[in-house]
Amino acid sequence: MFDVADIMCPRDTQNLSRIPRMQAIYDALWKIADRHCPATVFEIGVRAGYSAYTFIVGGGSVCEYTGCDVDDRKRYGGPWLDWAEKLLRDLYESHGVQWELLLRDSQQMTLLPGTFDLIHVDGDHTYEGCMHDMELCWPAVNPGGVMVVDDATYLPGPVRAVHDFSAKVKDAERIYLEQSPTGSMVYVKA
User: In the CATH hierarchy, which top-level class contains the domain 4-189?
Assistant: First the structure.
């Protein structure tokens, strides 16, 4: 595992007081990546790239990463995707990971079926947005791959969406909760 403070954007001062909590969240994501060893990763909600870094370094087997987020300069008022690009450039140089960042709203996307080994859903945290992202992403998970949904025990929208999606998903071999301060629901595809 790694120290999240070592990869934080210098302008991410809002999270300085929350480093222990953040560390626990990224440790949980590291365990998921280490357990499932994905080669291809897709992420909705990149922000500063901390989870991208975690999946790539934690899994040790990622060769392609694609992230999707809205233009954060308009939405978040920070240099977050610029920092994510820096982290991904560093990972390309140190690990050879091919990467792409898409400035798109996931609510307006389509994905090809069976494309990714690990998909991380951490975008729109409303019930409707989270449910849309899960329904968009689940068919794109390769057999034996995983879909990880962030904030599964923390925010009302994802909590309810995860509950409803879990009740109707048919081709999951296993569904489990990776414990962290916000909870990550993991769906393993049969």
Answer: alpha beta
